Amino acid sequence: MFYKPGSHRENGFKRDPFKAFISPRPIGWISTISSNGKNNLAPYSFFNAVCSDPPCVMFASGGSPDDRGKKDSQVNAETTGEFVCSIVSYQQREAMNQTSIHLPYGEDEMPKAGLEGEPSRLVKPLRVKGAPIHLECKYMQSVQMPCWREGKENWVIFGEVVGIHVDPKIVKDGFVDVTIYKPVSRLGYMEYSATDEVFQMDRPD
Ligand SMILES: Cc1cc2nc3c(=O)[nH]c(=O)nc-3n(C[C@H](O)[C@H](O)[C@H](O)COP(=O)(O)O)c2cc1C
Asked: What kind of architecture, by CATH, is found in domain 15-194?
C-alpha cells in the first residue's frame, strides 16, 4: 500500500495512522510558569532529545484548541525562557493523562490531577513530585512548522537541559534501570506502552 499524507481514509484507515507509525514516542511532561507566576503542566509526546553535548530537547505543540493560537506551555516557555520536563513513570500514567485537560490560561493542572510540585534548582517552573527524572531546561528557540488546519499553528520548541534530577532508586550499579520506573510512551490513537523489558546489542564497530 502507498498513499500520500491526508488520503489515509481512501486506503481503509479509520483514523490517520501517522502517529502509530512513529511509536513509541517518549512523553515530555512539561511544566512552565507564566510571567505572572501561575504554574502549568501538560504532557507532550511530540517530544525527544535532539543532541547530548550539550543535552537538548524539543517538544512540539499543535496549537491551542481555542483561538489563542499557541498552547500555554509554549507561551510560558517563550515568555519566561524556562521549562522542566518530568519523565512519566507507569505509576503516574493516570495523573499524566489528567494533566492534558484544557484549562483556561493561568489555571494549574497539578492539583487537579492530585499532583504536587517541588522546586527546581536553576529554573522557576516546578518539577512533578514522584517523577523519576526531571530535566531543568532553558528555552532556546521555537520553529514554526507547516499546518493544514485552518487557524491553527504547529511549532517545535527547543530547550537546553541545564540541570538534571534523578531518583537514586532508579540507578543500579551506576546505570539507569528503566525497568524500575517503566517509562510510559505514546503509540497511535489512544494507545500507550510502558517499557518493562530491555535487550542489549553491541555496535559492529
Ligand atoms: C500523552 C499525551 C501526549 C500529548 N502530546 C501532545 C503533543 O505532542 N503536542 C500537543 O500539542 N499536544 C499534545 N497533547 C495534548 C496536550 O497535553 C493538551 O492540549 C494540553 O492541554 C496542553 O496544555 P497547555 O496548553 O497547558 O500547554 C498530548 C496529550 C497527551 C495525553
From this structure: Roll (2.30)
